[in-house]
Design goal:
Helix content is 73%, strand content 0%. It is mainly alpha-helical and 340 residues long. Helix 3 runs antiparallel to helix 11 and helix 11 packs antiparallel against helix 13. The chain is built from 17 helices and no strands.
Length: 340
């Protein structure tokens, strides 16, 4: 999912989408790639519910994320201040100290608000029976995903894009909705009879369906397809659930487990680093636009290379902080033991 986040930002902030606007073939490829990765945020939120339903509520968890966000909202502006003349004013400092209040990173802001509701959402899931849970989830998805997307697609005139204050999924409410979905899947073992390969098929099928419909709207009807790829689109929700159900309990070789175990602790920081405002504006914006001039056949490969490179650079950049946070507690414990 973090790779998918990097991919989304490569397409849009990196300038790749705008660079291929005049080439139908290249534009079609980018639309497909967009639908393939747009479930990143939904995936994170659903996974949060899936693992959070049986986890103990600890403030230390949000405190660690908060520290990471504040750290990079201080360090990165300082680096760009000395290298590119980035102005550090009062707002920059406040965004570092209170990132949730200044929306320094929208997903962290949404998750921060949702985090304090987790004990109550977990209690709600655990105290409804399976039938009530299924009915409630169906109603929630209909009201918050199907209806808003349908209205936007077919009756855009007069339609409020911010219906239910969802902001197309950029909101605490939507993250909370997906948390409930993931928690319910875990608590009631929903869809347990559906084979894994079918869930992978759901992801692939939703991706191709969204792409096909978007191409029709783009080239035949000359209309936008944004509602289809928005976070509260049913297509994107199906993709996220499909990938969760496919990968959960998947048995992997030990080598793969070790690689994932090495990378996983850096994933949150990878998101925070490359979306930090200074780096976002001075380094990432339009960086990949020249790739739009490359041959159509190699565009997907260049795209994958850019995504993996962005992911890897941010991971390397996070290693000093990660190892400091990992080993400082051990040093404190050793110091306390020596005093005793």
């Amino acid at each position: 999912m973090t790779l998918f986040v990097c991919a989304i930002h490569t397409i849009y902030k990196g300038g790749l989408s705008g660079a291929v606007a005049d080439s139908p073939k290249k534009r079609a490829i980018i639309i497909f790639l967009e639908f393939a990765v747009s479930c990143a945020v939904n995936g994170f939120a659903v996974i949060s519910g899936y693992v959070g339903i049986n986890s103990k509520f600890r403030l230390s968890r949000i405190a660690g994320l908060y520290f990471t966000v504040s750290f990079y909202n201080i360090v990165i502006p300082v680096i760009f201040h000395f290298t590119s003349g980035y102005v550090i004013d009062k707002v920059v400092l406040l965004r570092a100290l209170f990132p949730f209040a200044y929306d320094a990173n929208w997903y962290f802001t949404a998750y921060f608000g949702m985090f304090f509701l987790i004990p109550f959402m977990n209690a709600a899931i655990k105290h409804v029976d399976r039938k009530q849970c299924n009915i409630a989830l169906l109603a929630i998805m209909t009201v918050f995903a199907v209806i808003p997307t349908g209205l936007y697609l077919w009756f855009k005139d007069g339609y409020d894009i911010n219906i239910f204050k969802l902001s197309c999924g950029y909101s605490t409410l939507w993250i909370a909705v997906l948390y409930l979905v993931g928690a319910a899947i875990r608590e009631y073992d929903l869809f347990r009879k559906v084979p894994k390969i079918a869930w992978l098929g759901c992801y692939i099928g939703a991706t191709f369906f969204g792409t096909a419909y978007a191409l029709v709207r783009t080239f035949a009807l000359d209309k936008e397809f944004t509602p289809l790829s928005a976070y509260n689109s049913p297509i994107i929700v199906i993709q996220a659930i499909g990938l969760l159900m496919f990968f959960k309990d998947l048995k992997l070789p030990k080598a793969a487990d070790k690689i994932i175990g090495f990378i996983a602790p850096h994933t949150f920081s990878i998101y925070i680093i490359h979306t930090q405002d200074a780096l976002w504006l001075l380094w990432l914006m339009g960086r990949y636009a020249p790739d739009g001039e490359r041959r159509t056949i190699i565009l997907p490969f260049i795209f994958c290379w850019r995504v993996v490179s962005l992911f890897t650079l941010c991971m390397i950049g996070d290693m000093p902080l990660h190892y400091c946070m990992k080993y400082f507690p051990k040093l404190f414990k050793k110091a306390e033991a020596s005093k005793a």
